[in-house]
Design brief:
Layout (H helix, E strand, L loop, with lengths): L13 H7 L4 H12 L12 E3 L4 E3 L2 E6 L2 E8 L1 H12 L3 H9 L9 H19 L4 H12 L8 H7 L2 H5 L3 E7 L10 E7 L11 E7 L5 E5 L8 E4 L3 E7 L12 H11 L3 H10 L6 E7 L4 E7 L4 E5 L4 E4 L12 H8 L3 H14 L6 H8 L25 E6 L4 E5 L8 E5 L2 E2 L14 H22 L2 H14 L4 H13 L3 H14 L4 H12 L1
Parallel strand pairs: 4-7
Antiparallel strand pairs: 1-2, 2-3, 3-4, 5-6, 5-14, 6-15, 7-8, 8-9, 9-10, 10-11, 11-12, 12-13, 15-16, 16-17, 17-18
Helix pairs in contact: 1-14, 2-4, 2-5, 2-7, 3-6, 5-7, 6-7, 9-10, 14-15, 15-16, 16-17, 17-18
C-alpha cells in the first residue's frame, strides 16, 4: 500500500469520467445547452388551479402523485395539452435536465460559449423541425408559453427529444409472449430501460395520459419535459417501446424516434398501420421498436435505421430484443457487429432466450415480472449491480409489463424492477391489483451487493480526487462484500498498473478472466491491461 501514492487530479470527475464514461460529443453539447436554458420554476399567475387532497386540476387537465409516481392527465388540442403539461409539471423539468446532465462530464463554459452553443442548438433544431408533425411542435410551444420569468424557445425542448437518437448508450431489454408460450394465449410485453444515474430517472417516472382532440387516447411512460414517447399504449391495445441500436445508417435529417412512436400511438389501430407509419417517415436514428396488438395477440419487432428497416415476427408466440439488430440486412453493419459481439447486449439477449425457453408454455404475468427482475448471467450467477449485461440493474430507469388485451400495464416501484409492480389502466391507478415487491431485497445477500456497489462508488470518488490508497481500501472492501465483483478487480489492476506494480496488476486482471464476466467489453479492456 505504501508504494501507491496519492495524486491529486484536476477536475472533480476527471479520472472517473475517463475510466467509466464514453459520452458522445454531440450529446454532451446538447445537455450543456439544455441545462443553460432550463425553464424557470415560476408560472404565469392565473386562477385556473383547483387543489384537492387527491389532485391538482388545471382546466381540463389534472396531476396526481400516487406511490411517488406522477400521473399527468391532459386533454384538448396539442397546444392546450402542452400548456397544461407546463402548468402542472413544469416545476420538474429542471430535474429531468439535471439528471441527463449528470450522465456526462462537466465542461465549464463562459457566457459567450453558452451563447454560441445555444445558437448551435437553435440551428440544429431548426433543421429537425421540418420532420416533426406540426401538432407536436404546437405542444412544445404550449409548454414554452406556460412559463413566466423565462420563456424557453420551443426549439430547446425539441432538441431535448433528439438525445435518444444521438446517445445510443442506453441499455434496454424487451420481450413478448403470447399464444402457446402463455397459458391463456394472451399477449404480455415486458420492458426494462436503463439510462443509469443510480436510480435518478427511476424516481422521476411520469405517466402521461393523453386525450387529444383527434386520434386515439394513449399513455406514455416517460420523464417530465418529454412530449415524445419511449414506451406507451393506446386505447386500441397497441403497445410500442423503443430500444437503442447501433448502425452506420444514421442521419440528422429525419424525425426523432420518440415523436415517431407518439404518431403510432395516436393514429395506428393495428400493427400494419404502425409499420406503414414507420416506413413512410424519414428517420434519424438506428432503433428497434417492439409493437404489440392486444386485439389479436400479435407482436413484431421493427429494426429501423435512417434508410433501411426490417420486420421480425414472433416465432411460436415469442420475440425478444436488446440493443443489437438481428435481421439479415444488418449482419454486415460494422457498428451493429460491435454492439452485438463486444458489449452488453448479447448477454441480455441470451439470458432472455434461456428464461423464455425454460418456461415456455407457462409464462404468466408473474413469470414476466420474474424475468424483468433477473440479474444473472447465462450460467445463473448473480452479477455486480452495475453490469449492463444483466436484464435488471439497481438503477434500471423503469420496468414495465403491458397486458394490452386488458388495456392494463404494471410499473415497478424503485429500486430497479425489484419494487412492487403497480397496476394501471388508461384512466389511472387500479387499486388491489399490484404484484408484490421481490423478497430478495430483504435478504442479506442483497444488502451485501448494495454495500459492494457503495464501496465501488466511494473508490471511484477517491480515484477522481487522486487519493489512490484510499481507493484501494474501498475496492478491497467491495470485493469482501461481493467476491465476484470484477469491476473492483479491474479498477485495482488499473491503479497498480499506473503505479508500476505490474505483478499485482497482472494478478487482478487474471482474476477477471477466472470469473468470466458476460460483458465482453470488460474482458477486452482487461486483456489490454495484461498486454501492458
Amino acid at each position: 500500500m505504501d508504494r501507491i501514492k496519492s495524486r491529486r487530479v484536476k477536475g472533480a470527475r476527471g479520472q472517473r469520467g475517463k475510466l467509466l464514461r464514453k459520452p458522445f460529443f454531440i450529446s454532451l453539447l446538447a445537455i450543456i445547452a439544455l441545462s443553460a436554458c432550463a425553464p424557470a420554476k415560476t408560472f404565469k399567475a392565473d386562477n385556473n388551479y383547483v387543489y384537492s387532497a387527491e389532485k391538482i386540476t388545471y382546466g381540463k387537465a389534472y396531476l396526481e402523485i400516487k406511490d411517488n409516481t406522477y400521473l399527468l392527465h391532459l386533454k384538448g388540442s396539442h397546444h392546450e395539452m402542452g400548456y397544461q403539461y407546463g402548468k402542472l409539471l413544469g416545476y420538474k423539468f429542471d430535474d429531468t435536465l439535471r439528471a441527463f446532465e449528470s450522465l456526462f462530464p462537466k465542461i465549464p463554459l463562459g457566457s459567450f460559449g453558452r451563447w454560441l452553443l445555444n445558437r448551435y442548438v437553435y440551428y440544429k433544431a431548426g433543421k429537425i423541425e421540418k420532420y416533426v408533425p406540426a401538432e407536436y411542435i404546437e405542444e412544445m410551444k404550449g409548454m414554452a408559453d406556460s412559463f413566466k420569468d423565462y420563456n424557453p424557445d420551443y426549439r430547446i425542448l425539441l432538441f431535448f427529444h433528439v438525445l435518444h437518437d444521438i446517445g445510443h448508450n442506453f441499455a434496454s431489454s424487451a420481450f413478448a409472449v403470447s399464444k402457446n408460450a402463455a397459458p391463456d394465449g394472451k399477449l404480455l410485453i415486458g420492458r426494462n430501460a436503463d439510462l443509469g444515474n443510480r436510480g435518478t430517472f427511476d424516481n422521476l417516472k411520469t405517466i402521461v395520459f393523453y386525450e387529444p382532440d383527434k386520434g386515439n387516447s394513449f399513455l406514455s411512460v416517460c420523464w417530465p419535459a418529454m412530449v415524445g414517447v419511449i414506451s406507451g399504449m393506446n386505447d386500441k391495445g397497441i403497445v410500442v417501446s423503443v430500444m437503442s441500436s447501433r448502425s452506420t445508417d444514421v442521419s440528422m435529417e429525419g424525425m426523432p424516434i420518440s415523436f415517431l412512436l407518439k404518431m403510432i400511438l395516436q393514429y395506428a389501430n393495428t400493427i400494419d398501420e404502425a409499420i406503414k407509419i414507420i416506413s413512410e417517415t424519414p428517420r434519424m436514428s438506428s432503433s428497434s421498436i417492439i409493437i404489440g396488438d392486444g386485439k389479436n395477440n400479435e407482436v413484431v419487432v421493427v429494426e429501423a435505421s435512417a434508410r433501411k428497416m426490417a420486420v421480425r415476427k414472433s416465432e411460436r408466440g415469442v420475440i425478444f430484443q436488446t440493443n443489437h439488430y438481428v435481421s439479415e440486412i444488418y449482419k454486415d453493419d460494422t457498428k451493429n457487429i460491435i454492439a452485438r459481439d463486444k458489449g452488453d447486449s448479447m448477454p441480455r439477449f441470451k439470458r432472455l432466450e434461456k428464461l423464455i425457453t425454460e418456461n415456455y408454455g407457462r409464462i404468466t404475468k408473474e413469470k414476466v415480472i420474474e424475468f424483468l427482475r433477473d440479474h444473472k448471467d447465462i450460467n445463473n450467477r448473480r452479477l455486480p449491480f452495475r453490469e449492463k449485461g444483466a436484464i435488471n440493474r439497481i438503477d434500471t430507469s423503469y420496468s414495465i409489463l403491458f397486458s394490452p388485451s386488458e388495456l392494463r400495464f404494471y410499473l415497478a416501484k424503485p429500486p430497479g424492477a425489484y419494487g412492487r409492480f403497480m397496476a394501471f389502466d388508461l384512466k389511472g391507478r387500479i387499486d388491489g391489483a399490484d404484484y408484490p415487491e421481490d423478497t430478495y431485497i430483504k435478504t442479506d445477500a442483497f444488502k451485501y451487493e448494495l454495500l459492494s456497489e457503495d464501496a465501488l462508488i466511494e473508490a471511484e470518488d477517491f480515484i477522481s480526487e487522486g487519493y489512490l490508497p484510499e481507493a484501494v481500501d474501498q475496492l478491497k472492501r467491495a470485493i469482501t462484500y461481493q467476491p465476484d465483483n470484477y469491476f473492483a478487480y479491474k479498477l485495482l489492476g488499473d491503479i497498480y498498473l499506473r503505479n508500476g506494480l505490474y505483478k499485482e496488476a497482472e494478478d487482478e486482471y487474471k482474476k477477471i478472466l477466472e470469473i468470466e464476466p458476460p460483458n465482453t467489453e470488460i474482458i477486452e479492456e482487461n486483456r489490454k491491461g495484461l498486454k501492458k
